[in-house]
Known about the structure:
The chain has a single domain, classed as Rossmann fold (3-Layer(aba) Sandwich). Helices cover 33% and strands 22% of the residues. It is an alpha/beta fold. It is built from four helices and six strands, in the order βαββαβαββα. Strands 1, 2, 3, 4, 5 and 6 form a six-stranded parallel sheet that branches. InterPro entries: Flavdoxin-like, Flavodoxin, Flavodoxin/NO_synth, Flavoprotein-like_sf. It comes from Enterococcus asini ATCC 700915.
Amino acid sequence: MTVAKIVFASATGNTEGISEILEDAFKALDVDVERIEADDADEDSFEDADICVVATYTDGDGEIPFDLEDFFDELPDQELEGKVFGVVGSGDSELYPDYFCQAAIDFDEAFAKTGAKKGAEVVKIENAADDEDEEVLKAFVKALTEA
């Protein structure tokens, strides 16, 4: 069975909600899925995963959230050949137009250094996911499972 792991960081609950939508979408496609909160993520989090997903918000002026900094720093050194990855970001383009979902973009670039295959483009969500975003997230999960 295909295994997906979702590492997520959430300050306001928006990204946690997104990770739950992703989890449900994977389950609907008969994928074994596990969500891992940022505080519990480490360099081995994706070791037994076929599909690797990071869902993150962007902190301050485009920074990686504090509880994901170590994970982010260690990610490029991981050997994830044969695995598929995808990244989802939530942000506020009104408050942070110059840094909208910057952490997600940074994670996408870090994943590219691991040898993993990019299964879908970065999904950027304005604050909390709405019904339209949920459909985008379902398509994102479908692309990852088909990659």
